[in-house]
Specification:
Length: 207
Amino acid sequence: MKIRESARTVRVIGTLAALVLVIVTLLAQVPKLENTIKTGDSEIHRLRVADQDDRRGLISKSKDEWDELGRRDSIRLKRAKEIYQSGGLVTAGDYFDAALILQHGSTPDDYLLAHVLCTVAVVKGDTDAPWLSAATLDRYLQSIQRKQIFGTQYDGDETKGYTYEPYDGSLLTDSVRKAVQVPTREEQQKDLQNLNKRIFHNQGGVW
């Protein structure tokens, strides 16, 4: 009797161990599966791809091209909000794609919603979302006349050069920036200097 009970116990433990192994394996695959879906053919992903394609060669665009970009952005923004409102965002990639489109909106509410959606993408395991989560917050803060805190947003133009201002660089530590894939303060300053040097070189003169 004891032998049969021991054998039954071993089988039960073995079955539980196998189930645990399956569950752990599936959980480990969740972020990978969702990130794979992000490269799929959903409507929100197609909108995001179009958003990025329209931004190729931004510096060289004419005023008419910028106006056309704004018109196309408005159409994508409207549709992205409809997909969000209807419950059409499911995967981490869906939330990331919608957040990126909303980041190119025009109002504080657009940027705030972009930040919230991107935060959901982070929770769901999207590996590209941490930086965008910081960028959406910075853009939201600047849109309500507050200083950015991560240092993801440039301000300026091709004639006067660019700056991070208004920027409260002291609120967050570089360890926090690194945690969300944002360059350190030192790296940001080097990036800004290189950007402005390229502009200066292309102009062939002084500001």
